[in-house]
Amino acid sequence: MTRLTGSALRVTVYIGENDTWHHKPLYAEIVHRAHAAGLAGASVFRGIEGFGASSLIHTSRLLSLSEDLPVAVVIVDTETRVREFLPQLDELVTEGLVTLDHCEVIRYVGRHANQGIAGTKGKKSL
User: Fold this and answer.
1) Are 24 and 34 in contact (CB under 8 A)?
2) What are phi and psi of 121, to 5 degrees?
3) Rounded to whole angstroms, what are the CA distances from 76 to 4, 29, 97, 106?
4) How many whole angstroms separate alpha carbon 10 and alpha carbon 77?
5) What confidence tens digit (pLDDT) does each residue in 29-53 have?
6) Of 118 and 103, which is predicted with more confidence?
7) Burial, 53: exposed, middle or buried (Cβ in 10 Å; 0-12, 13-18, 19+)?
8) Other Cβ atoms closer than 10 A to 1
9) Number of Cβ atoms within 10 Å of the Cβ of 39
């Protein structure tokens, strides 16, 4: 497991929900590549409204535009590891926005093997 505390770098990739890479969702490809690269973590957040470089507003309030809502993929790791991953993002993201922010990791703890699913913390299954 990757240990991560202190100074880190956050990369956020803003894309459309319908963006694809070889017929699968682009956000999924980014997450899987980040995982394969051994990065500390990645999360995908679906927006309810937004616009980008095209200036077209996408919103969940209008059925005709709700098919391509904004998506943000957030990855946090050490600056070195994130910067090593950037060439893959350059290859994948042909439309969208990629930003970098310095951040500080206060706590990064995974689920332990004996914790199981939510609500069973500390309990062992039979």
Assistant:
1) no
2) -55, 125
3) 9, 17, 17, 12
4) 7
5) 999 999 999 999 999 999 988 888 8
6) 103
7) exposed
8) 7
9) 21
Token digits of residue 121:
């913390």
Q: What is the DSSP string of the chain?
A: -----EEEEEEEEEEETT-EETTEEHHHHHHHHHHHTT-S-EEEEE-SEE--TT---EETTSGGGTTS-EEEEEEEE-HHHHHHHHHHHHHH-SSSEEEEEEEEE----PPPTTT-STT-TTPPP-
Residue 79: φ, ψ to 5° = -60, -45
Interval 85-110 mean pLDDT? 94
What's the full length of the chain, in residues? Answer: 126
Task: Fill in the amino acid letter for 108.
Answer: Y
* Locus of tokens 């090593």: 84
Tokens of 40: 């500390």
Position 45, amino acid? F
